[in-house]
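Anyone up for a design puzzle?
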């Protein structure tokens, strides 16, 4: 997908359309990055987080129709340890689940929820030193989500106020929610997170995260193993994307 998309930019194609989930879209984007060739999206993945954020229908025929009624938007991208991220990447529990989910036959929301519930009680919080635009803080975290868009997929919001074109990355830091804090669980599922004892949302352009031990992570839902050092850099307006012509507030 990377080489095909890159060849398309050199051979004068007007558009390149990615058909798949966030992982496939990420590969196509790598071939189009910093070019003038726009990427269209036909969502066919498990969660379709970026497509949902952009307002692209998940019904295939409707998504195809929107390709012919589009506008081109330049969106930001992120580099995490020099790997491209265009939607939401994560360090901690979501990285652990992504590593396990990749090897399961049951896909979609049901499979993801099943693994998440089973692993929730096993995975511990971790200690991290977070530096964002030069300001350093020490954190105890269960998930550190690095968000360009608002959601993982399936309308599960991790950064409700995130924009793909605001020139900022959104860092959502979540502690392990105890079962008796049902209010926090409901707030998370409804995308109504605010800064509190359980959630912290930070914004910036450059982030470094260092953990005391290697922590699993994922890039746009694709498992990436474990690491204890993460360099995150925003690349403003670095990718052209086709979005529905009437979509606002992206």
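Challenge accepted. My sequence:
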């Amino acid at each position: 997908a990377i080489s095909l998309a890159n060849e398309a930019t050199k051979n004068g194609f007007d558009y390149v359309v990615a058909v798949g989930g966030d992982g496939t879209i990420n590969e196509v984007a790598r071939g189009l990055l910093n070019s003038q060739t726009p990427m269209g999206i036909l969502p066919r993945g498990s969660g379709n987080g970026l497509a949902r954020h952009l307002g692209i229908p998940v019904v295939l025929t409707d998504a195809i129709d929107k390709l012919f009624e589009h506008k081109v938007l330049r969106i930001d991208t992120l580099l995490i340890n020099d790997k491209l991220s265009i939607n939401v990447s994560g360090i901690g529990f979501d990285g652990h689940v992504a590593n396990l989910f990749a090897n399961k036959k049951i896909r979609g929301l049901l499979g993801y929820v099943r693994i998440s519930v089973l692993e929730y009680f096993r995975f511990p919080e971790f200690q991290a030193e977070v530096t964002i635009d030069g300001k350093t803080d020490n954190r105890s975290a269960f998930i550190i989500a690095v968000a360009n868009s608002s959601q993982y997929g399936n309308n599960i919001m991790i950064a409700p106020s995130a924009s793909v074109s605001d020139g900022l990355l959104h860092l959502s830091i979540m502690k392990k929610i105890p079962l008796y804090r049902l209010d926090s669980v409901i707030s998370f599922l409804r995308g109504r997170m605010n800064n509190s004892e359980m959630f912290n949302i930070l914004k910036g352009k450059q982030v470094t995260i260092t953990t005391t031990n290697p922590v699993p992570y994922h890039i746009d839902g694709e498992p990436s193993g474990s690491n204890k050092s993460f360099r995150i850099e925003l690349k403003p307006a670095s990718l052209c994307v086709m979005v529905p012509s009437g979509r606002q507030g992206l």
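A detail worth pointing out: The chain has a mean pLDDT of 90.
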